[in-house]
Write a structure and sequence with these properties.
Oligomer: single chain
Number of strands: 0
Shape: elongated
CATH superfamily: Cytochrome c oxidase, subunit III, four-helix bundle
Largest sheet: none
Radius of gyration: 21 Å
Number of helices: 6
Amino acid sequence: MSQNISIPSTSLSSRNKIHPQKFMLWMGIGSICMMFAGLTSAYIVKRNQGNWLEFNIPVYFWYSTLVIMLSSITIQFAVKAFKERAMQKYKALVTITAILGIVFSYLQWVGFSFLNNHGIQLIGRGSNPAASFLFVIMLLHIAHVIGGVMALLIIFFKAFSSKIKTYSSISIELAATYWHFVDLLWIYLLIFFYLIK
């Protein structure tokens, strides 16, 4: 004799709904994408107006690309470790990811210093629009990376705090999604500036 088991429609709908914090994150990511799309479009328009300085991307920016790609791997492994309750491994991976984020920001600063020291003034009198655009766009990206590092540091302190015990993976999942986004955004910007010079 077969029995029909009915699943309440409310439980099915709740499973299909996206978490409110994830929804807000994706809304924010969409807004950031629109902002950078506008900035890179303005770069192309301004470039076609003449008085445009062409220069090579400093090698430090390529080094920083390797660093942020590595950090994207470590944070994904951190999510996996958290879900497996391998907390020591999780703590180590979150720590490594935060350090790599700081190293990425440092390499960006070194890259801009290299440009400035080689006669390419980024801002102020005597600067060229090409360098200024590069500086503003990449500075905005660094700001978003620093925001991600701050989120990672909060997760880091929560992981090492004996008072705070949480078994929800939502925080690290949000941080990982955002971190992958800034990683992909940086790769897009680097390829954009490399191709358009």
